[in-house]
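Section handout 9: paired folding examples.
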Amino acid sequence: TGRAGTGRGEGFQGDQGFQWGTALLLYLAMMVLWAALLVLVLWAGWKSTEMRAALVPAGAALIAVFVSLVGAGRTSSSLTEFVVAGAAATLTLFLLLRVITAQDAGRPDDVTARTKISGGASMTEGSTAEVAVDARDAHGTLELTLAVGDVEEASGSPCVPLSSLHFSGPDLDGSRTVTAREETSVTLPLKSAEARVRLDVTLTTEEGCALSLTKKKTVLRD
């Protein structure tokens, strides 16, 4: 009888050790998943295409691991305490993630280096230049500053004050026309959910004028 009791005790301890080991592995797996998600947010941005593609499988994996961890914790009070500690750590990581993403959402994104202008070297009446912005994340507003200069003047008069620029494109939430200046700034609401923004800039000017458009600064905001 003593040996049988001892055997049952050893079996119970073995089962408990196995359960502890399983819970620990599940807990570590959950931490690794959270760390990977955090790194992805810092690298790609909260609203990037990569982030959206990773959220569903990462979220499903986290839920599956957490449910398994809770199930393992029901076997003993000590395991339950371990699971509670894991849940607290998970909540802390989630709050940290939200703080980081909230700060990232309110920060302007300077994408001047990722902005290209095609067809802006020598524009005449009715000419259209294309502006391409390759951002990492989707945003709500584009702030664009262009340098506008005379390539050819009409009858010796500067053409910039006599000109206007019309901004349009499928990625914009409406078109806009502004009077040209040597440094022309415009704020354009965006409707596209994509990170890449394409828009056209059409010149209206006097006959005989030719103007150049070059980028000065491009900023995206939420």
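Moving on to protein 2 of 2.
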Amino acid sequence: MKNFSTRAALPILVVLLISSILLILGWKEEPPLEITATESHYAIRNTGEMITGTVLGMLNEDELELTDGDIELLNSAVDLLTRSKAAFYAGDYPTAKELADNSRQLMEQLKQSLKISEMSMDDLYVAPPNGGITKYKGVWTHSIEAMRDMLMNVENLKRMGVNFITVTLDVEMDENGNMHVVGGNDALFYIMAYHRCGFRVLLMLDPCHPTFVNGFEWELGDNSALVRRGPEILENLTPLVMEWAEIAEKYGVEMYSPVNETQTFVRSSEEASQWAQKILPGLRERYGGKLVLRSHGGAEFNSFELDASGYDLVALSGCSTWQPLESWRAHLREQLDNLVSMVGRDGCDNGILLDFGSTYLGGSWCEPSAVQPLTEEVQAQALEMLFEDGWERTKGFFLPVGHGWSFIGHPAENVVGEWYGESGTLPIKPVDKIWNNPDLLKLVEKVLSPEKRPFYHWTYSNGVHVDNQNPGPNGCTSAEECDEYALAHEKECDEWLMERGIEGYGSNFFVECYTE
């Protein structure tokens, strides 16, 4: 018994002896390695890419069976990553990495549950819906924020009877006049997400309001403008128009329009018509769907002077609603008469009303507007008139849903639902529930199109301006600095805006005005 006890204690004695020797020599146990900013940032980035790849994998499935538990897993993973980013900005790098790692673990569980793999945009294709459409019942999304909002509201849109959604491509121009698309992968993502939900898509390049260039000659005769209107603007746009015509064909986009507000970039309808006719053969070679020519008039020239020969559809815009409604309705009917005549004159199939009869309810808007805000009651009455007079005379409508102009969430939504819904609605799918989380969609946008949209929004934000003498929230003195702060401190930005009587909505105020 005594020998057994000695043998049992021997390992312990050896360990104690070694420890004593190490202490005498000055050795001490190293503390745990600190998590660096680089390590936590790497974990956040990799997890964001994993979530995005998994979402694309979900989008790739024709018949994805989702449970409430699957949706909860996805949203929990996104929430953990959002908290991880907040910890990172606060300088708590260990917590940031831990939260990112936990988010990643949840996504691994989700992939196993759904039996799906991550995908890249290069490998993803979602076919457009089958079947024909007798009436285009659309919404006009004029910004990345509006496209995001519509994807978040697909179930509501379907209940209203919406069957078409626009996807707009922000176009920037550099100092040499060269054009490039910002957020092209975002556009492709929204095209395929809308297709998966069952919607058709109208794709349009949008070098307008005000993402195109700060200082453009939006009004003819503006001597302070840095960039003048002229045919070279549209000529420089042509390569992008052709490139995206091929992309529209590849992804099964039902309708394609080369540019928003065609006449805005030239000095006459004749210049706009010459360009529209010049690019037509190239468009037909590259794209087999319906070509839409967007006609936009104003004080400078008449919308109906544009030559739409060879195009399938004319999209007429303008005619924002004003009071009294009786006077506006007379103008509406005159515009419809002219549209029908233009369609017949140029041999087009039909006309559509896009961003037409817009009803402005007020609120923060990135461009100062001369349009007087309407009441909700007047908005509903105006849309009722629009449908009564235009339903049988056009192929359809694309109603604006940007901030300040949208009918969604207002009594006019019932009017739209009555007209749009009468001819049928799209079925609600399990995949529709994926998109209810704005943080998820913002993450996907960030991963797919990491380039920053360079337009400085403050010039167009209803008088809000920041500089060294007039700092913004948390003392920010530039648009970029304010945007960066707003993304991480939504509540504080809300309070800052509300104190100044501005209808704020946290970080979205800054980001929407940044890209609107």
